[in-house]
Design brief:
The chain has about 325 residues and is an alpha/beta fold. The chain folds into two domains: about 170 residues, Bordetella uptake gene, domain 1 (D-Maltodextrin-Binding Protein, domain 2, 3-Layer(aba) Sandwich), CATH 3.40.190; about 100 residues, Periplasmic binding protein-like II (D-Maltodextrin-Binding Protein, domain 2, 3-Layer(aba) Sandwich), CATH 3.40.190.10. The protein is about 45% helix and about 20% strand. Helix 6 links the parallel strand 5 and strand 6. Helix 6 crosses helix 11. It is globular and about 60 Å long. This is Tripartite tricarboxylate transporter substrate binding protein BugD.
């Protein structure tokens, strides 16, 4: 009899829990949501996040507040979300660094693949290989020759370990089979400022950060890393066209929630993301930045999880070959 009562009690508790979870999904959201950007304000990922957050806010009927939690290549912000309550009110929008940090950092406060629930992919931003406007080479082949000949003095800027520009720089070194002098900064802004001022020579960064400078002629563009030329940078060849065979890299972005967030909630967020990515303002602003919203079938938990798993596998040998780890 005691065993039957115990089983009944467990069943009742489970039923109450399931009802509570279902109710949460039906009423969510009831208050302001925080979306964490693991980088400083004003950077490329921050720009993408604010556009998407505004559009999702309209669909969800509740405001999404963007919070910048920078530091340690995005791992501080990711760790903050990993340890947050799994109720759907604290989210993370992170880029490709979510995958590379699994190898790049020797010690993480979270298990990259198992500490989060997945919402969906947001966009895949092309990169640009750029330099100070008075650098001598006039095309990518000339730049490669120049960098190899001056590998001990040429400086390659990045926005810090784990930043998109750092990752692209490592891939560039791998493709050219040459090590360069890298100059890490505390964010994209100061790195671009020094490139504009001629204090550093080269940078590989997202179109969301370089397009206006390229169009204004304040930096020199050698290539884009997309499969085809970009509509807003039609005169800039692809890396493939310019002679760097197989060099294609995009800085994809995705939205995550803490592990244990109810499936109904992540599904609601995914549907909202799909609506947001069709918003005319998002589409237009993304186009200005040289990118496009992810397709509806990519803005799903399944697609984001598969992307993250595949990218961890892809970047592991690149990072190991470069030997640029962080504690």
């Amino acid at each position: 009899m005691k065993t039957l009562k115990a089983l009944f009690g467990v069943s009742a508790a489970l039923a109450v829990s399931l009802l509570a979870t279902s109710a949460l999904g039906q009423t969510y959201p009831e208050r302001t949501i925080t979306m964490v950007v693991p980088f400083s304000a004003g950077g490329p990922t921050d720009t993408v996040t604010r556009l998407v957050a505004e559009a999702m806010s309209k669909d969800l009927g509740q405001q999404i507040v963007v919070e910048n939690v920078g530091g340690a290549g995005g791992t501080l912000g990711a760790g903050r979300v990993a340890s947050a309550d799994p109720d759907g009110y604290t989210l993370l929008l992170h880029h490709i660094g979510m995958a590379t940090s699994a190898t790049l950092y020797r010690k993480l406060a979270y298990d990259t693949l198992n500490a989060f629930e997945y919402v969906g992919l947001v966009t895949d931003v092309p990169m640009t290989i750029v330099a100070r406007k008075d650098l001598e080479p006039t095309d990518l082949k000339g730049l490669i020759d120049y960098m190899k000949a001056n590998k001990d003095t040429v400086t390659v800027a990045n926005a810090g370990i784990g930043a998109a520009s750092h990752l692209c720089g490592m891939l560039l070194m791998s493709a050219m089979e040459t090590q360069f002098v890298t100059v890490p900064y505390k964010g994209t802004g100061p790195a671009m400022t020094d490139l504009l001022g001629g204090q550093v020579d080269v940078m590989c960064d997202q179109t969301t950060n370089t397009t206006k400078q390229i169009q204004g002629g304040t930096i020199k563009a050698y290539a884009v890393t997309s499969p085809a030329r970009l509509d807003n940078l039609p005169d800039v060849p692809t890396a493939e066209e310019a002679g760097l065979s197989g060099f294609q890299v995009g800085i994809w972005h995705g939205i995550y929630a803490p592990k244990g967030t109810p499936a109904d909630v992540t599904e609601r967020l995914s549907k909202s993301l799909q609506v947001a990515l069709k918003d005319p303002n998002v589409v237009a602003r993304f186009a200005e930045l040289g990118t496009a919203p992810s397709a509806e079938e990519e803005a799903t938990p399944t697609a984001l999880k598969a992307k993250l798993e595949g990218e961890i596998t892809r970047w592991k040998p690149v990072i190991e070959a470069a030997g640029q780890y962080a504690d």
